[in-house]
C-alpha cells in the first residue's frame, strides 16, 4: 500500500547520458554510450551545496562494456532556480583499457515550473 509519509525525505535526482572518449590503439577504435539516473542528492554539512553518486554500465561495444562508480560536482546554477552537475572521470578498466568521459546532468525536475 502506498504511504506518502515514507517518501517525505526523498531528494531529487538527475538524468545523465553521454559517450566515452574514443579508444584508438593497436587497430582497436571504439567508444561506448551510457545513460543512467543519479542517486539522490547528498548535501554537504553546511547544506549550501550537494552532489550525487553516479553508477552506470556502458553499452556493449567491441565485445565488452565498462562500469563506473563515482560522484558529480556540486550544483551549477542555470537560472530560474534550476541547476545541473558536471562529471569528468574514467570508466573502470576492461579489455586492457579504460575510457575518459565528461558530461553534464540534465536539469532537475525539468517540467516543474510555474505557468504565467
As laid out across the biggest beta sheet, the strand order is 1-4
Classify the secondary structure makeup into a structural class.
mainly beta
**Helix and strand sequence:** EEEEEEEEEEEE
Helix content: under 10%
Shape: elongated
Low-confidence stretches: none
Distance between the termini: 37 Å
| Number of continuous helical runs | 0
Mean pLDDT value: 87
Give the number of domains: 1
Number of strands: 12
- What's the main sheet like? 2 strands, antiparallel
Radius of gyration: 17 Å
Q: How much of the sequence is in beta strands?
A: 35-45%
Pfam family, one: YmaF
InterPro entries: YmaF (IPR024307)
Protein name: YmaF family protein
Explain what this protein looks like in three dimensions.
This protein is mainly β and 116 residues long. The protein has one domain. 0% of the residues lie in helices and 41% in strands. It has no helices and twelve strands. Strands 1-4 form a two-stranded antiparallel ribbon. A hairpin with a 2-residue loop joins strand 2 and strand 3. The radius of gyration is 17 Å and the shape is elongated.
Amino acid at each position: 500500500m502506498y504511504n506518502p509519509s515514507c517518501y517525505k525525505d526523498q531528494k531529487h535526482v538527475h538524468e545523465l547520458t553521454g559517450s566515452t572518449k574514443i579508444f584508438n590503439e593497436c587497430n582497436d577504435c571504439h567508444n561506448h554510450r551510457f545513460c543512467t539516473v543519479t542517486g539522490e542528492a547528498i548535501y554537504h554539512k553546511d547544506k549550501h551545496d550537494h552532489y550525487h553518486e553516479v553508477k552506470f554500465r556502458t553499452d556493449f561495444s567491441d565485445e565488452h562494456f565498462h562500469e563506473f562508480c563515482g560522484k558529480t560536482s556540486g550544483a551549477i546554477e542555470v537560472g530560474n532556480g534550476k541547476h545541473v552537475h558536471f562529471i569528468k572521470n574514467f570508466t573502470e578498466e576492461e579489455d586492457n583499457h579504460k575510457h575518459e568521459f565528461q558530461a553534464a546532468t540534465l536539469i532537475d525536475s525539468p517540467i516543474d515550473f510555474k505557468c504565467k
